[in-house]
Write a structure and sequence with these properties.
The chain has helices spanning 7-14, 18-27, 47-60, 82-95, 110-114, 123-128, 154-157, 176-188, 196-205, 230-238, 250-270, 288-301, 315-321, 328-331, 336-352; strands spanning 33-37, 40-44, 69-73, 100-104, 168-170, 219-223, 241-246, 275-280. The protein has 370 residues and is of the alpha/beta class. It folds into 2 domains: 1-61, Multidrug-efflux Transporter Regulator, Chain: A, Domain 2 (Orthogonal Bundle); 63-352, 3-Layer(aba) Sandwich (Rossmann fold). The longest helix is centred in the C-terminal third of the chain and has 21 residues, at 250-270. The radius of gyration is 20 Å and the shape is globular. It binds adenosine-5'-triphosphate (ATP) and magnesium ion.
Length: 370
């Protein structure tokens, strides 16, 4: 079973009119499947088609990708929407035409699961169920970092659930905990393990790591666990921005002050920290306490609070229950909550200057659409 869209849902996912969607698909030379309904046939788009169209539009019409960025999604409070928003933002940025790599840093592998991969699935089970071998998770971030027992090329580690132009995933499984432990041991023996991901990205972008070319990615996102472990610290230090979800309730607002302390420590030790972007999640403007927290956060953190929030919507957990699994933006692109996430992604892209003004170009090679 795979996700398919008729014109209206496909256009909504890309923020285009149906006419522009059709024209872009034709101009890009994309072979879109047609389904016969009565005497006429209609186009049926798949997620991979949407990402290919988005990339084609960005590289041919602009606004073109202008700058690369790294983002960590983190708030030490658990269950606040980090994984939900990381997965949906990764999809939203790829639907803007960016090449995106999203890295699951939580050994629970929730993001991995939300992208359709069960880290407990064995090869034997996959075969017995008639599933492709690629559904099996064998490797995680630890296999990409120097010092790994079994270092692997990027191509063997990443998953591409929605094709080449969709977000690529570095999955997680229970063994990711060992990487965190290894970084801790390195730190205790005097190494600067907090810089592990900063170096990995710098070297991968510069083509200095054989088999791990990170230069193709416009955006790298880390979905951090709800703890300040070594991997989280390393991800924060490697990031240009930390997107921190809050649900406008006391615990998550309080967690922000803890996050601010971590960022200040980072400045003291390393002379830099990622830009804080506070993202209101599960927002319900009808609730008075919600509005109180918005005002308090705005007073304390000013512009760090993003003007766009994401509403509370059952569509998020519903997308998790749907089969095949996919973030809401792909599962139900016409949902009002999906609109919120797309608007947040536009805001973040603008803040980080990820795109040129319309028509401009970095040196992005137009890419072939399969
Ligand atoms: N805007 C929203 N409206 C309704 N439900 C939401 C919203 N955002 C997230 N959720 C739900 O909240 C639950 C927790 O979300 P999620 O797993 O993303 O949090 P998390 O911060 O990553 O958790 P953890 O700290 O364990 O990593 C999920 O069931 C998700 O579907
Ligand atoms: Mg999570």
């Amino acid at each position: 079973m795979s996700i398919t869209y008729r014109g209206q849902a496909a256009a909504a996912a890309l923020g285009l009119t149906i006419d522009t969607l059709r024209r872009s698909a034709d101009d890009a030379g994309l072979k879109v499947e047609r389904k016969q309904t009565g005497a006429s046939s209609t186009r049926v788009f798949r997620p991979a088609d949407l990402f290919s169209i988005a990339r084609w539009r960005a590289t041919h019409h602009g606004p073109a990708p202008a700058k690369r960025a790294v983002m960590a999604v983190w708030n030490p409070k658990g269950g606040i929407g980090k994984t939900t928003l990381a997965g949906n933002l990764a999809v939203a940025l790829a639907l803007q035409g960016l090449r995106v790599l999203v890295v699951d840093l939580d050994f629970q592998g929730s993001l991995t699961l939300g992208f359709g991969y069960d880290s407990e699935l064995t090869l034997e089970e996959a075969k017995a169920q008639g599933r492709p071998e690629d559904d099996v998770i064998e490797y995680h971030l630890g296999h990409l970092l120097p010092g790994a027992d079994e270092r692997q090329p990027l191509a063997r580690v990443i998953k591409k659930p929605w094709g080449e132009m969709g977000p690529h995933l570095v999955p997680a499984d229970l063994m990711l905990d060992i990487v965190d432990y290894r970084l801790l041991v390195e730190t205790l023996s005097g190494a600067q393990s907090d810089l592990a991901l900063t170096k990995w990205i710098a070297e991968g972008r510069a083509g200095k790591t054989p088999g791990c070319d990170l230069s193709i990615y416009d955006a790298i996102l880390f979905d951090c666990p709800p703890s300040k472990n070594r991997l989280t610290r390393a991800a924060l230090l490697a990031s240009d921005a930390v997107v921190s979800p809050v649900n406008f309730e006391h615990y998550s607002t309080k967690a922000l002050s803890y996050l601010a302390i971590v960022l200040n420590e980072m400045v003291e030790h390393y002379g830099r920290c990622p830009e804080l972007m506070i993202l209101g999640n599960e927002h319900d403007p009808q609730r008075v306490r919600s509005s109180m927290h918005v005002a308090a956060i705005a007073a304390q953190y000013g512009d760090a609070l993003l003007a766009q929030t994401v509403r509370r919507s059952e569509d998020f957990p519903r997308a998790l229950d749907s089969e095949p699994k996919a973030p809401l933006l792909l599962a139900r692109p016409t949902s009002a909550a999906a609109d919120d996430v797309r608007a947040v992604a536009r805001l973040i892209s603008a803040r980080l200057g990820l795109f040129t003004a319309k028509g401009g170009s970095r040196t992005v090679e137009p890419q072939h659409v399969a």
